[in-house]
């Protein structure tokens, strides 16, 4: 069982266009600990999906003490099949800006949270993160 379950979503209106990230951090039993949104400027949809994940992992570092991170099990749920497949090694990351985003996630995984898993979920199972990403795109900012 995971210590944390994190739902992330990133999106861009226009692709590229105004972009936002949404994050819902829950404990292993599903109790929500944080709901976050962040405006990302003008970006592509896939870049925003990665940035939402990076934002979530940075926030998780604030919750989990450094000496506990190496044994913390984290399940990441995203509705971006492309990003999940890239993170799971099923697809190559060919786009250079996405390669940089991928490396940021990889570095956090190596340094802080080696027990990350990435799961694709249908959009309706990611509604909380999707709503927060849309709020960010609308300019509502952090919650």
Short key terms for the protein model shown above:
five-stranded mixed β-sheet, alpha/beta, 4 helices, 143 residues, Nucleotidyltransferase, domain 5, globular
Describe the secondary-structure layout.
Elements: E1 4-12, E2 17-27, E3 32-43, H1 45-63, E4 73-78, H2 81-87, H3 96-111, E5 115-120, H4 127-137
Parallel strand pairs: 1-4, 4-5
Antiparallel strand pairs: 1-2, 2-3
Helix pairs in contact: 1-3
Give a brief rundown of this model:
This protein is of the alpha/beta class and 143 residues long.
At the first level of CATH, the class is Alpha Beta
N to C succession of SSEs: EEEHEHHEH
**Rough outline:** globular
Count of discrete domains:
1
CATH superfamily: Ribonuclease H-like superfamily/Ribonuclease H
Q: How is the CATH topology named?
A: Nucleotidyltransferase, domain 5
By CATH, the architecture is named: 2-Layer Sandwich
Instruction: Identify the strand order in the major beta sheet.
Output: 3-2-1-4-5
| H/I helix tally | 4
Content of β-strand: 25-35%
Query: What integer value in Å does the Rg equal?
Result: 14 Å
Number of strands: 5
Helicity level:
25-40%
